[in-house]
């Protein structure tokens, strides 16, 4: 292995093919996160627990993802990215294998913690690795290629898993996820180059972003935005109950419309983040969320208009994550890209979890209230980006003065510089 100091302007070709491998892994992670929702009745029957208790499998996966991601990213900061990726997706495969073969509720719960930790370990490193492989010019597109893999799980992975579960049992659907994860582990091990994003920093330096108020501001924006996103998404059947009239087929169509639109919004936002300030993309997306959520209030009774607003919601909602990752990488220290991206993804998963709790409380009063509450969280995210983002070009260690010039897109002038070592 040869060691060189490179800047982000020297990508390792061919970045698109290698990023596509990472996107496939993200697809598996997204499928694993969504698939349980469609299998809850069968799981509750097999394990002899209530549907609510079975639903805790989803919550526990989200919490394990949110809290283990930053810790694992910090602890594995010196590892080659290929090793981190392989270990992460392997843990995901093992966790799902245990879920499919377990016969007790407690063991299934434990297996979801293991799968969540593996998913977090993979995704944080996948985003950071894709950003490095693509270089400055295509960083936004590379990041959104990876996150688009997870978004595609809404359109293909989760419905396919639900179909497999209905035909051959829920365990078969979980084995399906485990098998794809195992294939991804082999593909990553064979085809991805060995990339070291951190060769000199210690654990304390890698954790330093936690004390950077600019990073914390971005995390709060992600949290608020994803509470807003998942309030109407999680309770879509309640939001559009008048238009759905109890039809599961109509609900499935709305979910598919949302997934397709979300994929388009995600990819489009990545291209915009490469050409302009990612902060502007986030402001536009969150402002669009406010408008769409309030518009939904007026069209809840009409299925066609519900489908149109659901599509608009998918576009603007999933235009947030890629630019947010783009922004947070800007403030990563040497070797800290995986940590800051894991923190940002953890904030999104916490938003998902918080939305389920807030939504349940709001739903007890009125389903119609979900939309203005979601709009309020989106508006808060928009205002935070507008008002609280402060100038700065790169990561500043605790106690260091912050630069006063405008925030730049990640990886351009003032972006993070990292020591790297690669083996092709």
Automatic annotation (TrEMBL):
Residues 396-424 are annotated as: Disordered. This is MFS transporter. It is a multi-pass membrane protein. The keyword Signal does not apply. It is found in: Cell membrane. Residues 18-393 form the Major facilitator superfamily (MFS) profile domain. Keywords: Cell membrane, Membrane, Transmembrane, Transmembrane helix. It comes from Streptomyces tremellae. InterPro entries: MFS, MFS_dom, MFS_Efflux_Transporters, MFS_trans_sf. The chain crosses the membrane at residues 21-41, 53-75, 84-107, 113-134, 146-168, 174-195, 215-240, 252-273, 280-297, 303-321, 369-388.
